[in-house]
């Protein structure tokens, strides 16, 4: 992996009894040029000071960082706190991770370059929320947070249902935060609309039953968290807001802004049909007989957050039996200690 971002160290020289010694970083090699009394001493890149290596790693994008960490042990250790945050800056576009048929996944960045990744953890699983580089994964009742770039995984207590038919999910902050709360709005065929909450450190979910008449929503579109409130949007123009502080639910109808009428302002901008806008189906080489379901994400912007809605595309005709999944994700790298757990 090239290091074009690193400026070569200026050659330092000293004269000692008529001999000139020159030190520079490069390939490990030693040579003497006796005719000019010059001794060239070259050293490996791994001899760079750890502090300088850490500064370099902190300025790399996610793909470069992964390559950087694979060079040698010294570089791996020096990049232990790097998170590729440069590619998750404000107003940057998310990346797209396609999965669902086996452990082989396809990753596309904003320049539409494709990468293949093997992620066994996603085989047979479904991503139900994506935020700040962390994915919330559901697999037959089990749930865990996962960072696909670092393979960091944090298990959380099992969900009360083995199947999530229709849902919208969000978490308030990264799972390593003591303030993290997971919220899942689930429409059950038998029990109707249910809100499940899991607080950091808790070993069981709390359940709230909601009236399907009072809190009627069409198909769920997305969920997000802002200012101590979870918002669950449908795909049309309605939302349910749950206040963590007051433990109350309110339903809102979303209308166009009218300054002449005082109304509550949404804390975010809704972005729909991004999968279609970026023509992802063609880029992935998916035919019309393949169903696609995607999980959105949240983009922290300078002025107001953007939320990318979940999307579903049914296969054309009756012969379609393949289904792939995808998730929009911010390319971040997180390392957690081996004893990191959901418990406090």
From TrEMBL:
Coiled coil: none annotated. Residues 112-267 form the KIB1-4 beta-propeller domain. Signal peptide: none annotated. InterPro entries: F-box-like_dom_sf, F-box_dom, KIB1-4_b-propeller. It comes from the Eukaryota. Residues 45-76 form the F-box domain. PANTHER family: OS09G0392200 PROTEIN (PTHR45463:SF8). This is Uncharacterized protein. It comes from Carpinus fangiana.
């Amino acid at each position: 992996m090239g290091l074009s971002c690193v400026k070569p160290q200026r050659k330092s020289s000293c004269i000692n009894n008529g001999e000139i010694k020159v030190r520079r970083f490069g390939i490990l090699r030693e040579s003497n040029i006796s005719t000019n009394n010059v001794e060239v001493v070259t050293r490996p890149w791994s001899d760079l000071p750890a502090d300088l290596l850490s500064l370099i790693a902190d300025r790399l994008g996610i793909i470069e960082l992964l390559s950087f960490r694979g060079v040698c042990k010294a570089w791996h250790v020096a990049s232990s706190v790097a998170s590729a945050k440069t590619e998750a800056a404000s107003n940057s576009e998310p990346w797209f991770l396609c999965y669902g048929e086996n452990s082989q996944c396809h990753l596309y960045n904003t320049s539409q370059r494709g990468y293949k990744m093997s992620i066994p953890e996603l085989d047979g699983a479904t991503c139900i929320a994506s935020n700040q580089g962390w994915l919330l994964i559901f697999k037959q009742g089990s749930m865990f947070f996962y960072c696909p770039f670092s393979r960091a995984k944090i298990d959380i207590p099992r969900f009360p249902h083995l199947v999530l038919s229709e849902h919208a999910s969000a978490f308030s902050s990264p799972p390593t935060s003591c303030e993290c709360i997971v919220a899942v709005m689930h429409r059950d065929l038998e029990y109707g609309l249910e809100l499940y909450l899991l607080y950091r450190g808790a070993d069981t979910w709390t359940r709230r039953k909601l009236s399907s008449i009072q809190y009627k929503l069409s198909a769920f579109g997305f969920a997000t968290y802002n200012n101590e409130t979870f918002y669950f949007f449908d795909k049309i123009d309605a939302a349910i807001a749950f206040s963590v502080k007051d433990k109350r639910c309110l339903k809102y109808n979303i209308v166009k802004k009218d300054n002449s009428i005082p109304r509550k302002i949404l804390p975010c901008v809704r972005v729909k049909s991004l999968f279609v806008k970026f023509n992802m189906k063609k880029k992935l080489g998916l035919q019309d007989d393949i169903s696609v379901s995607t999980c959105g994400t949240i983009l922290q912007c300078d002025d107001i957050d953007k939320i990318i809605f979940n999307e579903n595309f049914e296969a054309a005709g009756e012969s379609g039996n393949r289904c792939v999944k995808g998730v929009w994700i911010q390319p971040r790298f997180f390392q957690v200690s081996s004893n990191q757990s959901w418990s406090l």
